[in-house]
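Re: that chain you flagged

S.,

Sorry for the slow reply, it's been a week of failed gels. I finally had a moment to sit down with the sequence you sent. For the record, here it is as I used it:
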Amino acid sequence: MLRRWTFAQRVGAGLSVCLLAGLILLATLVSAARTMAVEGQPWPHQVSDLLAGLLGLGALAALGMVLRNALGPMHAERLQSEQRLHLFMDGVSDYALCFLEPDGTVSCWSTGAERLTGWESSDIVGQGVECLHVPDAVLHGLPASYRERAARERRLQSEGWRMRKDGSRFWAETLLTALYTESGTLQGFAEVTRDITERKRTERMQALLAEAGRVLQPQAGAEALGAALTRLCVPEVADACVLYLPDEHGLVRPGAVACADAATQTRLWEPLLRRPSSDEPGPARVVHTGRAERFAEVDPDRLPPSVSDSTYAELWRALGVRSALSVPLVVDNRVLGALCLLSTRPHRHYGAVDQAFLEELSARAALALDNARLMAATQNALELIGVAAHDLGTPLSSLQLRLRRVRLQCAPPHGDDARLREGLLLAEDETKRLGRLVHNLLDLSRLSGGRMVLETQPMDLAELAHEVVARHEDQAAAAGCPVTVHARGEARGRWDRQRLDRVLTNLVSNALKFGGGKPVEVRVEQDAHRARLIVRDHGTGIPLEAQQRLFTRFERVTTDTRTPGFGLGLYIVRQLVEAHGGAIRVHSRQDEGAEFTVELPFTPESGVAVASSIRA
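Prediction finished late last night. Pasting the structure tokens below so you have them in one place:
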């Protein structure tokens, strides 16, 4: 028991003992003197006793003075140290400082601890520290295990939920330090606690935004995006999350729902399917006004008057909502919907920080939803282009064959009908160009939709080169560009013949178009691993800065408006070559012509769908 006394108490006890002993000796001397005076005993017999008593009294007085003079400065220093400690504990307001006995009983409580937890020193001193921990932690014995680890490791840093006097929770960072005497005896613990709820919430929100960037991809589609958005918020920042979207009539309907409790989610659909009016508080009004609404603290038994009679209140009653936050999904001043977070936990209330975070999340979600809408519209347009190109292909082929037959049978090479032959030849060339455009659009549609399948088969690239060049004899003659094929033997492999025909046709056609009346060369080469198709012209060439964008969509490097084209040919060529696992490159200098090289592996994968996407 004595070890629990303070230093001042011990000094006071020593001085009290000395004073008591002196009083006893003084009383004894007075009693002896009185006895001598009353009984008349001779003085010589009592002189020695009196002298001994006076000597003892003097010794006690001297001892008291020595104790007072020797221990006085130490006592003052101890009082000053204790005063400094109390001033320090009272001055630190951002941290909760307390001292614990080895069994976890609170022995000292700072002003900062009172401010942080709501417990006053008179309420908490003498009680167990378990009252500061949440019930689940106490049930699992975490406070005792923390003290055991701190006693073993001398200090322990931990994070977790803590309780305030009013029952609210906060996320705390705690440093628990074991206090030992010089002899190694455990005296207790010093605990330093601070509230890091906002910091933890900020970190969690940043992680959630990073996860949103990964999950909210427009390629997934609007429906999948809505489901991913609501799942992202539950249970991280909400116990239930509803995405509301307006329909074609302007009525707000739930587009996606996520709930932490599956049983509770089934009870949500009845109030969710009711159509709220735009003047009622909640997501419907948020969609129509474009302004967020926040209900920081809600009493489930007494809803706010503005909400109690609305359709939104039925949802709150079904869940037992304690806090709600709804923000609009806005992009380019257009409101695409509203995201509603609902909390049923007493310790989770939505504040200004949560609203700012959710507005940032909703802005990203709105952009992803709008991009998904645009991609869906683009995909529909590409599908329409693909259907139209497919339907145009057959009559164009038939028209081209009929024009060729008429030109060969009905128009002699010389005579009055020369103009007719020239006109038929021009018409045939135009149908060929239109046919290439139709095929390019069809390939573009398939590539964009990820529906292209390579139909590979054994074939010879040298044979294909001769065949393509033979088809362009008339065009080459009209352009004044003789075309030669250089191939050493066969270059056999397994490729999609129709797609490589399209590749070589586009390259030869471009070489004749920009060849400037000079020869065009087509070479077929191979080594142990790859085959190469090389098309070279000797025309004006391609500027270096234009070569960087040559294979992009709708890009034309010529400034001659008389040269027809939409800038799709080389883009389709690159897509088809890369679909085979190959590559295409260009080498050109101004006024020295251009050389296109296509490299193809000998053993590409066959029959594999190519889910290529449009690349700018």
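What I noticed first: The first helix runs from residue 7 to 39.

Talk soon,
D.
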